[in-house]
Design a protein that fits this description.
Blueprint: H1 28-35, E1 38-39, H2 46-51, H3 62-83, H4 86-97, H5 101-134, H6 142-155, H7 160-172, H8 201-208, H9 212-233, H10 260-284, H11 286-312, E2 319-320, H12 327-332, H13 341-347, H14 351-356, H15 358-363, H16 372-383, H17 394-404, E3 414-415, E4 427-428, H18 434-439, H19 448-451, H20 455-462
Parallel strand pairs: 1-4
Antiparallel strand pairs: 2-3
Length: 464
């Protein structure tokens, strides 16, 4: 097993402050996890976690949820109305300033960028609210969750029932390499790297090294197209599924036979949305639909991939193989992040479960998103050092994970991402390290009697 990379400050943190230093740094919480290089497997009891949460936080309010949905849709409509007046606004601004026609074009373009950004944020918010519906958290009435979820997800071309099924599977096997559904990491053997015992720096350099420009290109493709490619043909999904696996295919191995009718319903809904966009384009012109819908829709996918990828993909977060995985360990393999601060909280209501309080969401999938901040605070003392929070600026955290979470080892019950030099910042303690444990480095054997709780009871406690 290779040794963890040297700890300490990130190279960016050692530089003299620059104009963008506030956007490019590793947060103290991340640095602290890096310093704990030897990862001791958690033995936290789900019952203790659940006992800490007051019962009233489990209650769902249909009226409160409808308020959030209504407010969000209203904001999106306001953005749309603003966009339909951009040309008029640009003309009036240019006229008031006595500027030329070319200046008016520049103002118009800047206003379109402003619209694309905020409408993309709104579209991503619709997706997160649909995510909440998929967990039946917006209302105690199942049909309300279904109607709202179908409408919200279909608007952003996500097959509601299909994605809900696989997302629940993700919750049942988070960071379990045999079960988890998305962002499945490459292994050393996938990349055809030499064995760790004989691999040299040049081996890693020849196989993995990329120019920053090419890395950025790959990242852009992943951010804007990755989610739809996952839905269409299981890109970055679990490799246990055969070729041709798709969220749009009722017979796909992703689903059980009894799920097929709901998958067809999702397909029909998405088909109706595509037909609507086609008619809209025919009647008003493709450029109109491109500006008003497709650009913010694509940009929204960037946000969706960003916060879902950062939930569990981090150099300091473990992956488990079946022998060492428990539901609690999977839930703890999660990072809470203050994604875009007030923007995330206001527009991505599900950010309370999607990003800001994602750890609590994995322990309590049926608690409404608006109660999760309180849940997070009451379970922190129970989770102790295993509660993972990271205030690293979001875009830098995304770049860090994309460039440093390169592969995992093909063997080992608990593994961490390694970078393009074959280095991991942490490694799991094992029974083989008993001598080191005695020496006092913090390692301890993973005792069998503390290792797992009954999985069926764990899923019931979590609401799955």
């Amino acid at each position: 097993m290779s040794k963890p990379a040297a700890t300490g400050k990130h190279p960016h943190n050692d530089r003299r402050p620059g104009p963008f230093s506030w956007l490019v740094y590793d947060a103290p919480e991340y640095e602290d996890r890096k310093k704990r290089t030897h990862f001791v497997l958690p033995t936290i009891s789900l019952k203790d976690v659940h006992a800490a949460v007051p019962r009233h936080l489990f209650e769902k309010s249909t009226l409160k949820s409808l308020f959030y949905v209504g407010r969000h849709v209203a904001l999106s409509v306001l953005f749309y109305l603003f966009a339909t007046r951009i040309d008029l606004l640009a003309f009036r601004i240019a006229t008031a300033l006595g500027m030329s026609v070319s200046f008016r074009g520049t103002v118009s373009w800047l206003l379109w960028v402003l619209y694309w950004f905020w409408q993309s944020v709104a579209f991503a918010g619709m997706w997160t609210l649909g995510h909440e519906c998929g967990h039946d958290t917006l209302s105690p009435h199942a049909w309300i969750n279904v109607v709202l979820g179908m409408g919200l997800h279909t608007w952003v071309l996500t097959p509601y029932f299909a994605w809900r099924i696989t997302h629940r599977s993700h919750h049942k096997g988070t960071n379990n390499l045999a079960r988890d559904e998305t962002y499945h990491p490459f292994t050393r053997s996938d990349l055809k790297l030499p064995d760790a015992k004989v691999a040299t720096p040049m081996d890693y350099k020849e196989i993995l090294e990329e120019t920053p420009l090419f890395t950025l290109f790959k990242m852009i493709i992943r951010q804007f197209l990755g989610f739809q490619l996952y839905l269409i043909h299981n890109r970055k999904g679990n490799p246990k599924y055969p070729p041709g696996t798709s969220h749009y295919k009722p017979s796909s191995k992703l689903f059980k036979p009894q799920d097929r009718t709901s998958i067809v319903v999702s397909d029909i809904a998405v088909g109706c949305m595509l037909a609507f966009l086609t008619v809209w384009s025919y009647r008003t012109g493709f450029s109109n639909v491109w500006n008003l819908y497709l650009v913010p829709w694509l940009w929204a996918h960037n946000w969706i991939v960003m916060f879902t990828y950062l939930q569990h993909s981090d150099p300091t977060i473990p992956y488990y193989r079946e022998k060492s995985w428990t539901f609690a360990r999977g839930a703890l393999a999660t990072v809470d992040r203050p994604v875009f601060g007030w923007v995330g909280r206001l527009f991505w209501h599900g950010a309370c479960s999607i990003a800001h309080n994602h750890v609590a969401h994995h322990f309590f999938v049926t608690i409404p998103f608006y109660n999760l901040p309180q849940v997070t605070e009451v379970i922190k003392p129970v989770l102790g050092e295993y509660y993972c929070y990271d205030s690293t600026p979001t875009l830098y955290a995304l770049w860090r994970s994309f460039t440093q979470c390169t592969f995992i080892e093909a063997e080992g019950d608990v593994v961490f991402f390694k970078n393009q030099r074959g280095e991991a910042v942490r490694e799991a303690c094992s029974s083989d390290a008993k001598a080191t444990s005695v020496a006092g480095d913090g390692c301890s054997e993973d005792r069998a009697e503390d290792k797992a709780e009954d999985e069926e009871d764990a899923l019931k406690l979590a609401g799955l």
